[in-house]
Design a protein that fits this description.
Helices cover about 15% and strands about 40% of the residues. It is mainly beta and about 130 residues long. It has one domain: HesB-like domain (Hypothetical Protein Aq_1857, Chain: A, Sandwich). The strands form 3 sheets. A 5-stranded mixed β-sheet has the order 1-4-3-6-5. It has a 3-stranded mixed β-sheet with strand order 2-7-8. The longest helix has 14 residues.
Length: about 130
């Protein structure tokens, strides 16, 4: 799986939005399980992170990871092992990860209630 980076701008991390409220749609879970099967390893988990970068200041990263970091929040959603690091957790509370496969678009998307408004590039938004 390649790293998926989507720029996002959030003014501050909301303290009342814990990452344990991250959701994964069934479509996303099916795709992640298929990708994990292709990897042929049982020690990998989907890691969702928010990192500095992108045109709006922050961006999402989705990747497979075997590491366990201090403070990780570990979830099992639709049979998919998922982890969020403690620094990203406040930004991801209530977020939903989906997978779209249409003529116009293919890939993972994140609907995040902690972010609002869009920018001209169409890939980033502000909080």
């Amino acid at each position: 799986m390649t790293t998926t980076e989507t720029p996002v701008e959030l003014t501050s991390a909301p303290a009342d939005a814990p990452a344990k409220d991250v959701a994964l749609t069934e479509a996303a879970a099916v795709k992640v399980r298929a990708l994990l099967d292709q990897e042929g390893r049982d020690d990998l988990r989907l890691r969702i992170a928010v990192q500095p970068g992108g045109c709006s200041g922050l961006q999402y990263q989705l990747f497979f990871d075997e590491r366990s970091l201090d403070g990780d929040i570990e979830l099992d959603l639709h049979g998919v092992p998922l982890v969020v690091d403690r620094m990203s957790a406040p930004y991801l509370g209530g977020a939903t990860v989906d997978f779209t496969d249409t003529i116009e678009q293919q890939g993972f998307t994140i609907d995040n209630p902690n972010a609002g408004g869009g920018c001209a590039c169409g890939n980033s938004f502000c909080g």
